[in-house]
Design brief:
Length: about 220
């Protein structure tokens, strides 16, 4: 597909699922537009376009795509270079780990939004236990290879970014990564496509949002 195609993302400014698509577009150097909306007061046109009422939406020459995993696949299949494995089994494995990353983002959100210390500790422990599952595929080289960017990288970078920020806001949010996971998270944080995938004042916006929602991690410190 040539770059005459008009690509536009509709996003909530803090949404990690939209950030995945931005990372992929940035890594492929695809020209795109992005429009931020308030999900608590969504505009009528958004409600008409999004059957699930969620972001991201991807508009391709005005045609609508929804669901973040579908959008990632479309971007990867439409613009070079391809980041999904060619091998059918490995590609399916990558997609499964992307879904696992989505479940971790749910846990991260629950940790961030917790209104008391007990829930914070519970969710922090849940995340720490789940991250152990990443050790084997990382050590086997299924993904996380510094020489080969993948959609799994794009899917997990927003998680690591938010967990790092939560730890900066309050050390009680710190999740102890296994060594291989820590190295992967550090490498992803250093990539320009990840650094450029959020607005410049993202940390301040993220903290302000949590304060507004009464999140224990930011109001207790």
């Amino acid at each position: 597909m040539n770059q005459e195609t008009e690509i536009k993302l509709v996003s909530f400014i803090l949404c990690p699922y939209v950030q995945r698509s931005v990372i992929l577009l940035e890594s492929k150097q695809v020209r795109y537009q992005i429009e931020y909306i308030d999900l608590e007061r969504p505009p009528r046109w958004f409600q008409q376009l999004s059957p699930l009422g969620r972001v991201p939406l991807l508009l391709v020459d005005g045609e609508v795509l929804f669901e973040s995993a579908v959008i990632l696949d479309y971007i990867d299949e439409s613009f070079s270079p391809r980041f999904h494995p060619v091998d059918n089994l490995k590609r399916a494995q990558h997609k499964a780990w992307i879904e696992f990353g989505s479940s971790l983002l749910v846990l991260q959100h629950e940790l961030a939004m917790a209104t008391d210390s007990a829930v914070v500790e519970e969710k922090r422990g849940d995340l720490q236990a789940k991250l152990d599952y990443l050790v084997a595929p990382l050590e086997e080289g299924l993904f996380g290879d510094s020489a080969h960017f993948s959609l799994v990288d794009a899917a997990f970078a927003p998680l690591f970014m938010r967990l790092d920020l939560l730890t900066r806001f309050n050390p009680l949010a710190k999740v102890d990564y296994p060594q291989s996971v820590a190295g992967w998270a550090e490498r992803l944080a250093s990539l320009p496509c990840v650094r450029d995938s959020v607005v410049e004042d993202f940390p301040q916006r993220f903290r302000s949002y949590l304060e507004k929602k009464g999140a224990w991690l930011v109001i207790a410190c």
